[in-house]
TrEMBL record:
Function, as annotated: Lignin degradation and detoxification of lignin-derived products.
Keyword Signal: yes
Tree of life domain: Eukaryota
Signal sequence, renumbered to the chain: 1-25
Organism of origin: Acacia crassicarpa (northern wattle)
UniProt enzyme class: oxidoreductase
EC numbers on record: 1.10.3.2
SUPFAM superfamilies on file: Cupredoxins
Entry similarity comment: Belongs to the multicopper oxidase family.
GO biological process terms held by the UniProt record: lignin catabolic process
Protein name (Swiss-Prot/TrEMBL): Laccase
Length: 576
C-alpha cells in the first residue's frame, strides 16, 4: 500500500476518533470585538485597534477535538479578517481568514462568526488579522492541549507560559503601510519589540509597568509557548544562564533538543521546557532580531525587548542579561533550525509520503516594480518600488474582482479572479545565490499576477524553495495555509538534487506550517494535498506579502461529500 493511502487512512481514523469522542470534546466560544483603544507605550499615547481592548488579544485555550466559535465584531474603522494560523480547517475552509482569498473582509460595523474544529493537532498556534498590516495590533495565542485522558509526550510542567513576541509602533500602523505602499519602500521601522505586549526597560522612556515579569519557583519546570507575532523580523530568544529543551514546533511534537538560544521566524512557534535551576535571583529574558539582507534595501530595527524572570524569594534589583547573538548570526540561526527533528510515532505523527506526484522548484526573492507616481518619486532602490516574487510571478490579491478566490472556486466561476498557471519551475535558470545579482536590474522585475497551482486531491507535493540573491539574499519564512508539511532538508547555496537528495530525512523530519528558508539557501518540503479549497502560500515577513511573495494552491475536491468543499456560511462577507 502506498504511503499516501496510509496517510489518508490515518486522517480518516483521526476523524473517526474525533467523532467517537464527542463526549470529551467541548465547544469553546469567544466574542472578539475589534475597536479603537488608546494605549500608552514608551511614554506616548497611541490609538490602536485591539481585540477586547487588550494587546495581545485573548488567549484561546482548547483541547484536541474541541470546536472553536469566535464571533468577530468589527467596530474599528478598518477592514478585518482573522486567520487561525496553523489550523487545518478541514471542512471549515471558509474560516481560514486571509482577505480576498477565503473570504471578503469584515467591513467596519459588520460581524462574522468563525467556527472550526481542532482535529489531530496539539501544541502552540496563534491567531492574527489577515488584512494588511492590521496583525500588528490584532493577534493572540491559541493553545491546544491533549484531549482529556491523554498526556504530553514529556513530563508535565509545573506551569505553562505563553510568550508572544510582537512589535510596537509610535504611529498608526495602517498609515505606515499606506505610506510604504504609495512610495514603494520598506515601511518605517517599529519603535520596539515586545514580550506579551510590553517593550521592557531597555527602551527609552519604557516605564516599569511596561515589562513582562514571570515569577518562578526554584526547581520547577515551566513550558514556554513562544510565538513570533512580529511583522517582519526573525527573533533570537534567550534567558540569562538558563537552557531550554525544545519539545514542539508549530504544534507538532519534536525529539527533545537542548539549547540556550531559540530562533523563531515570523509566524512560527516553539514549545520549550525550562527548569528554574539557577541561583535565586532575577534574570532577563530577551528577544533580538536576526537579519541578513542589505539594510539599505530592507532596514531593520536592531533593538532588544526584555522581560524578567524572578525567582521566589529574590531580592535582586538588577537582573542578569544574557549574551545575545549578533544581528547577522546565520550560523546560530541555522544550527537551531537544522537541529530539530520530529517525534516519530508520537501523538498525531504523520509519516513522510514516499511517492511524489508533483515536483515543484520555486525561487523566492525581493525585486523591483516600476514607479507609478505622477508627481512624486518612489523611494525603493533606484527610484523604483520594492517588489517580491515566487518563480518570477509577483502575486496580487484579487481585491475588487467581486469574489474571493475560494468563492470563485466553489462556484466554478472564475470571472477573472485568478488564473491556474502558476509555474512549477522558474522561467530561467541562473546562479541563484551569486551575490553579483544583488544590483542586477535585468532580473529584478516580475509581472504582477494572481496565479494558482492546481493539485489533485490526495496528491503528494514536493517543493524546493530556493532563495535568490536579487536585491540581496534573506531568510524567508514561507507559510502554507491549510497544511502541515515535512521539512526534509535545508542547506546553503544552490540546491542540487544529485548532491542534496542524500540529505533528506525521511525518518523523523520536523513537521511545520512555516519554514524558514535559509539565507542564500534552500529548503525541501513535502505534504499531501488532502484538504480541498484555495490555500494561500506566502512569506510571513509582512512587508513581502503586499510586495508579492506569494501564490496559492487550488486543491480539487475529493470523491466523497466528506472530501468536498462545503457551502459557504450564510453570514460570510461578500463585498470583495
Amino acid at each position: 500500500m502506498r504511503t499516501s493511502s496510509l496517510l489518508s487512512l490515518a486522517w480518516a481514523l483521526a476523524l473517526l476518533a474525533s467523532s467517537s469522542s464527542l463526549v470529551s470534546a467541548d465547544v469553546v466560544e469567544h466574542t472578539f470585538e475589534v475597536a479603537n483603544v488608546t494605549m500608552t507605550r514608551l511614554c506616548r499615547e497611541n490609538v490602536i485597534a485591539a481585540v477586547n481592548g487588550i494587546l495581545p488579544g485573548p488567549t484561546i485555550n482548547v483541547r484536541e477535538g474541541d470546536t472553536i466559535i469566535v464571533h468577530a465584531i468589527n467596530n474599528s474603522p478598518y477592514n478585518l479578517t482573522i486567520h487561525w494560523h496553523g489550523i487545518f480547517q478541514f471542512m471549515s475552509q471558509w474560516a481560514d481568514g486571509p482577505e480576498y482569498v477565503t473570504q471578503c473582509p469584515i467591513l467596519p460595523g459588520k460581524k462574522y462568526t468563525y467556527k472550526f474544529n481542532i482535529t489531530a493537532q496539539e501544541g502552540t498556534l496563534w491567531w492574527h488579522a489577515h488584512s494588511s498590516f492590521f496583525r500588528a495590533w490584532v493577534y493572540g495565542a491559541l493553545i491546544i492541549r491533549p484531549r482529556l485522558g491523554h498526556s504530553y509526550p514529556f513530563p508535565k510542567p509545573y506551569k505553562e507560559v505563553p510568550i508572544v513576541l510582537g512589535e510596537w509602533w509610535n504611529a498608526n500602523i495602517i498609515e505606515v503601510e499606506e505610506e510604504a505602499t504609495k512610495f514603494g519602500n520598506s515601511q518605517r521601522l517599529s519603535d520596539a519589540y515586545t514580550i506579551n505586549g510590553l517593550p521592557g526597560p531597555l527602551y527609552n522612556c519604557s516605564q516599569n509597568p511596561e515589562t513582562f515579569r514571570l515569577r518562578v519557583r526554584h526547581g520547577k519546570t515551566y513550558l514556554f509557548r513562544i510565538i513570533n507575532a512580529a511583522l517582519n523580523e526573525h527573533l533570537f530568544f534567550k534567558i540569562a544562564r538558563h537552557t531550554f529543551t525544545v519539545v514542539a514546533v508549530d504544534a507538532s511534537y519534536t525529539n527533545p533538543y537542548d539549547t540556550d538560544v531559540i530562533m523563531v521566524a515570523p509566524g512560527q512557534t516553539v514549545d520549550a521546557l525550562l527548569t528554574a535551576n539557577q541561583a535565586v535571583g532575577s534574570y532577563f529574558m530577551a528577544a533580538t532580531p536576526y537579519q541578513t539582507v542589505n539594510t539599505s534595501v530592507v532596514p531593520v530595527a536592531d533593538t532588544t525587548t526584555t522581560g524578567v524572570v524572578v525567582y521566589q524569594g529574590s531580592t535582586s534589583k538588577k537582573p542578569l542579561m544574557p549574551t545575545l547573538p549578533p544581528l547577522n548570526d546565520t550560523k546560530t540561526a541555522n544550527d537551531f533550525f537544522l537541529s530539530i527533528t520530529g517525534l516519530a510515532g508520537g501523538p498525531h505523527w504523520v509519516p513522510v509520503p514516499e511517492v511524489v506526484d508533483e515536483h515543484m522548484f520555486i525561487t523566492i526573492g525581493i525585486g523591483l516594480d516600476f514607479c507609478d507616481l505622477q508627481n512624486a518619486k518612489c523611494l525603493g532602490v533606484g527610484g523604483f518600488k520594492m517588489s517580491a516574487n515566487m518563480n518570477n510571478e509577483s502575486f496580487v490579491l484579487p481585491q475588487g474582482r467581486g469574489f474571493s478566490m475560494l468563492d470563485s472556486f466553489y462556484r466554478n466561476a472564475n470571472k477573472g479572479v485568478y488564473t491556474k498557471d502558476f509555474p512549477d519551475q522558474p522561467p530561467f535558470v541562473f546562479d541563484y545565490t551569486n551575490p553579483s545579482y544583488i544590483n542586477d536590474l535585468s532580473v529584478a522585475f516580475a509581472p504582477k499576477t494572481t496565479k494558482v497551482k492546481t493539485l489533485k486531491f490526495n496528491s503528494t507535493v514536493q517543493i524546493v524553495y530556493q532563495n535568490n540573491a536579487i536585491m540581496g539574499p534573506e531568510n524567508h519564512p514561507i507559510h502554507i495555509h491549510g497544511f502541515n508539511f515535512h521539512v526534509l532538508a535545508q542547506g546553503t547555496g544552490n540546491y542540487n538534487a544529485s548532491r542534496d537528495e542524500s540529505k533528506f530525512n525521511l525518518k523523523d523530519p520536523q513537521i511545520r506550517n512555516t519554514v524558514a528558508v535559509p539565507y542564500a539557501g534552500w529548503s525541501v518540503i513535502r505534504f499531501q494535498a488532502n484538504n480541498p479549497g484555495i490555500w494561500l502560500v506566502h512569506c510571513h515577513i509582512e512587508a513581502h506579502l503586499p510586495w508579492g511573495m506569494a501564490m496559492a494552491f487550488e486543491v480539487e475536491n475529493g470523491p466523497t461529500p466528506e472530501t468536498t468543499l462545503p457551502p459557504p456560511p450564510p453570514d460570510l462577507p461578500t463585498q470583495c
